[in-house]
Amino acid sequence: MYRPSAWSRWELSQHTRQSFWQKLTPPQLFTASFAALILFGACGLWLLPGISTGGPLSWIDSLFMSTSAVCVTGLAVVDPGTKLTFFGQLWLLMLVQFGGLGILTFTSLIITALGRRMSIREESLCIFTSETAPHLTPGQITRNIIRYTLVIEAAGALVLYFLWCTSLGWRQAAWPAVFHSISAFCNAGFSTFTTSLMDFQQSPGTLLTVSALIILGGLGFLTHEEILQSLRSRRRRRAFRMSVQSRIILVTTALLLVLGSALLTMLEWENTLAKLPVFDRLVNGLFMSVTARTAGFNSIDYNQAADSSNFVTMLLMMIGGSPGSTAGGLKTTTVALMFLMAVSRLRGRESTIVWYRTIPEATTTRAVSLFTITMAVTVFGILLLTISEQQIAQGSSDLRVCMFEAISAFNTVGLSMGITPGLTVVGKGISILLMFFGRVGPLTVAAALTIPQKGANEFRYANEDVVVG
Questions:
Q1: Crossing angle of helices 26-47/86-112, nearest 10°?
Q2: Residue 2, in any domain of the structure
Q3: CA 47 vs CA 52, 81, 88, 153: distances in Å
Q4: What distance in Å separates the CA atoms of residue 335 and residue 110, rounded to the nearest whole number?
Q5: Residue 213 and residue 247: Cα distance in Å, rounded?
Q6: pLDDT, tens digit (0-9, with 9 covering 90-100), for 349-366
Q7: 140 occurs within a structural domain
Q8: pLDDT in tens, 391-436
Q9: 58 DSSP assignment
Q10: How open is the CA angle 249-252-255, to the nearest 5 degrees?
Q11: Which helix (H) or strand (E) segment is 217 a member of?
């Protein structure tokens, strides 16, 4: 009877292991990597000594904080500034950085994937077709992402340090500056200050610096790359045409910033901003518009804000940032394409046209699909939270508070009306699932929508129309 040697058994196990990983699709690998990082971070928060003050964190709180950090959300069931030690804050910031870089790298690679010859496995990563950076290889993209991330975060930390060193002290200002710069660029929203940035309402330099970091983190690497290419071309007097994707991102971002800040400033002018000077009111209104799109810092108490302001904030939270960025939400391109598609249909056009370019029908179909899935999951999450958190009593309706919390969690924003620390175990579990699916779900769903199913195009059923509207 033949018995394989130890070496043969080892080779067989290696082959089996490789076959297992090769069978996983890129969306499955992406989801598994984030789940593994979340569990690793949760175990660290739960088991490592010196992480928290006043006793160790519970498992559910550790899992919640780790999920919020890796998914760059910013919702917190414990105050990082008082409950976590310096080592605990460092561990949390490490998870934020790895989570943010993971999102940046993955989304940037899948956006540029169709620009070059790839294997079938690599092609299944592609969500968007783009010729944004055809001169860059995936390795160069990854290196450039890490490089520009660290440069921007270092510059932001330096500016915040000089802004805070006089009030916090030369030594004490260093760590908060680094922490908030990384948290802002990654659109995480975690703060070492108990009241987030509410104590800086009358510090325009702080709010504008954090806003700039949030915007830069939310634009996406490929848009940054095109902006740099455009500047180089102008300096060398060469022609350069920016892609439709980057144009849509820049125009939509500008419109959302202007409209959002105007609306929020007007609605809160005589409410939460009433005691501030005129210039500070304008800066805070801009900051509210910026942070609502998946950043999570707050300079006002949203529990005291008007219902109309919170409704505008929820709309901005759902839109989110741009593809290839650290931000969450539906993404600016998705919302813009749906608007452009509606305009084209109203004009009697079958195709969606923008800047003398036709958007592929498959792309607009993906946008509608992502919008439908996002709305369905958000509504279901709101329903579950209203059931699990029936004892909420914050001086406002349970529905409004739960809507705000669910939308913030699913779109990885991090803003809250103050109920996060008081969530039940079931409510924390619901929020964890919303954050995780909101971070990896839309990406994996979008990737899955681009993978042709076997036999899907082999035949077609007969047409039969349905009346809508």
A1: 180
A2: no
A3: 10, 19, 11, 30
A4: 20
A5: 20
A6: 888 888 888 888 888 888
A7: yes
A8: 664 444 578 889 999 999 998 888 988 888 888 899 999 999 999 9
A9: P
A10: 145
A11: helix 204-219
Residues 88-98: tens digit of each pLDDT: 999 999 999 88
Distant-in-sequence, close-in-space partners of 28: CB < 8 Å, separation ≥ 6: 444
Residue 63, C-beta contacts closer than 8 angstroms, at least 6 positions apart: 38, 42, 46, 432
Read off the amino acid at residue 469.
Answer: G
Tell me the two tokens of residue 399: 């529905």
Q: How many C-beta atoms lie closer than 10 Å to residue 433's C-beta?
A: 17
> What tokens does 262 get?
């105007």
Please give the residue range of the domain that contains residue 126.
Answer: 25-450
Residue 469 lies in a domain: no
The answer to whether residue 457 is domain-embedded is no
Looking at 411-461, which runs of residues are DSSP E strands?
none
Alpha helices (H) in 270-360, listed in sequence order:
278-292, 307-319, 332-346
- Cα distance between residue 406 and residue 56, in whole Å: 27
CB 67 within 8 A of CB 38: yes
Give the SS3 label for residue 228: helix
- The CA distance from 64 to 78, in Å, is 10
Q: How many domains does the chain have?
A: 1
Q: How far is residue 25's CA from residue 121's CA, in Å, rounded to a whole number?
A: 7
